[in-house]
Amino acid sequence: MKFEELLNIPPYQLEKQEKRKRLTTRLGELSELHYHNCVAYKKIVDILGFHGEKVKDYEELPFLPVRLFKELELKSVESEDIVKTMTSSGTTGQNVSKIYLDKITSSNQQKALVKIVSDFVGSSRLPMIIIDCPSVLKDRVKFSARGAGILGFSIFASDKIYALQDNMELNIEAIKLFLEKHKGKKILLFGFTFIIWKYFYQELLKYPEEIDFSQGILIHGGGWKKLINEAVSEEKFKSCLQETCGLYKIYDYYGMVEQTGCIYMECEYGHLHASIFSDIVIRNSRDFSPCKIGEKGMIQVLSVIPESYPGHSILTEDEGIVLGEDDCPCGRKGKYFKIFGRIKNAEVRGCSDTYEK
Amino acid sequence: MLRLGGAVILMKSDKIQYLVGDENFTREIIPTVPLEETICCFLEELSKRLREEEEARNYKDILTFAFWIRKANIERLKKVYYHTECRLGKGLIFHIAPSNVPINFAFSFVFGLLAGNGNIIRVSSKNFPQIEIVCRVINKVLKEDIYKKIREQNKIISYDSQEREITDYLSKLCDMRIIWGGDKTIEEVRRSPLSSRATEITFADRYSFGMIQGEKILEMSNMELKQLALDFYNDTYLMDQNACSSPHLIFWKGNKKKIEEAKEKLWEAIYQEAMKYELADIKVSDKYTKLCEYAVDLSIKKYRNYENILYIITLDKLPEDITKLRGKYGLFFEYEIEEEEELNGYINSKVQTCSYYGIEKDEIREWVIDKRLRGIDRIVPFGKALDIGIIWDGYDMIRSLSRIVC
After folding, report:
1. What is the CATH number of domain B207-381?
2. What is the ipTM of this complex?
3. How far is A44 from chain B (nearest CA, A)?
4. Which domains are seen in chain A, by residue range?
5. How many angstroms separate the CA atoms of B321 and B345, rounded?
6. Set of chain A residues whose Cβ sits within 8 Å of the Cβ of B184
7. Which residues of B touch A298 (CB under 8 A)?
8. Which CATH class is domain B8-205?
9. Is the CB of residue B129 less than 8 Å away from at least one CB of chain A?
10. A145: part of which helix (H) or strand (E)?
11. pLDDT confidence of A208, banded at 50, 70, 90?
């Protein structure tokens, strides 16, 4: 089954059985593809005792732990076919994920993203404010997660500006001019949750009632970890932005550099949604069996996009629950879910290298 | 201000927390003979008080420690060490205890005391309840007048390891330094020089394995099997398989057909025992990632798992450096052998403990001596891998921490 077949279907319209059938076919084929083209993937799948021909449902497919992309160079294409390498942000000292993209995978990421986001903002291009600084995009071959997000979303822009200067200062004058120029039009805003809070919202507080974003649609992602440390909840984030600049259409998304493109968008009811390009399975950590709806566990993400690297089925280090399937009040089909953030660091016992601070 | 010289040095530093003892440091330590009477009385008293202490009952490691310093055990040590040689403690020992094994500091302290020394023990700044409880009880016992000298010559302190100045000072001051806690710690502490006559014992990262005679497993009763599984659990899972003496690799010895059957029987029993293990999600993720990495790097014959509780990797052949085969949270390697001799080239100096079942200890010891192996300092039955004793890592702690007068 070709990826293109899915492009002809609206991203949130397949019922459970239909979606299951198509995903099983496509993901099964991707597993075969990587089995024959990525030695590391083959070795892992072999010792896990997995046999491709017996798969009746994509839930049975093996998954790679997300951290493996930090430890190993995993690719299923020749090095000369790689057009882009994406890396996770990763705090200093840690390894970063390295994701290798060829032309096809890179273009399919973009196509899936367009389909998904259009469902929320419409299909025409919009004036766009990127809440970040331009220097994030400097290196066009090696992309950070931040850069990849910005580049991916830029396709929705009819005209765009960066809200921040390279020193991360808010460029308030440029924003005012931009809003003046596109007065009365829908405006798309995009950025990373923490950057929006710290460099955009908190700076905007200095200009009360000067800026009106009531025509804006904000899409943001990147996780809440840093904001939770500052005691900023999702609700507070939304209400603060609305109060300060009238921005009320705010959509969070869940996504990761290992599966760029098929992001999970938050709907008007605050639920994250799986599109037809991807799915999530909540796994019980005791034996990796799938959890029922409403049961908390580790999140496995599946994506129909990755052809150049074996990242179509990944076990993340996030935990969450599936809230339901096909029956969200927003009308979108597919699973909808909630994320609780990272699984916690455990206190590890032992007696080596312990001269801690 | 930290200064050297003079009989009493005030170490006033708000960066140091004194858990036992105060900031008056006597430089001129008066050593004792090993297993001196007052010291033995002190330990006997401490053992009693610890066992009476309500809070201590919740900590198996405290009770193990209290049991180890009980009168009968000290008397046994006396028989071994008394009257064989004339010895005196080296003087002042500076101990750096590891931060992941809470009770270790207490053993290190007792080794220093028994050998006849004054001691300064740096404990982890992590707040382990065990450290707090043991120090509280030590302080209670030390209040008695007969222990005045012990009180003056011993301190348990805590400070941030980044405070190099303090480590520098104590390293210059001591006659001997003991560093627990692995290669990185040793490297860091060694940047603080010792005085010219002082010596050092380091407990570096080590590697341990187990050896089992297959047929013997088949002969076991259910009760015996359950006990062995529990012993195995205590040696491994109890410390997240992270202790130096926890086995990572099991060598199965004997007839191949019988080994197959024996493996099934023992691993199943271990799985049953390990069901109680607290398997946090992050540990599952770690363990599964490790498994995938090993799948790529090693030559694997077979892999089995019991849920995410127990992973077993059966190796086709051994890698050159077996100490790289490290499991975590219940991930084990196994390899079949006919004779110990097959392993001669693999036992390098990093190898510490060989836990065994169904094989004679003497047989393993003879192999180590005869073949002049670079590694294996301890040969213990399963269940005893983590037992700390006066002989540790190839050192006789009493003899190493004292000097001979002849």
Report:
1. 3.40.309.10
2. 0.92
3. 5
4. 1-63+270-343 (2.30.38.10), 102-254 (3.40.50)
5. 9
6. 353, 355
7. 281, 284-285
8. alpha beta
9. no
10. helix A145-153
11. confident
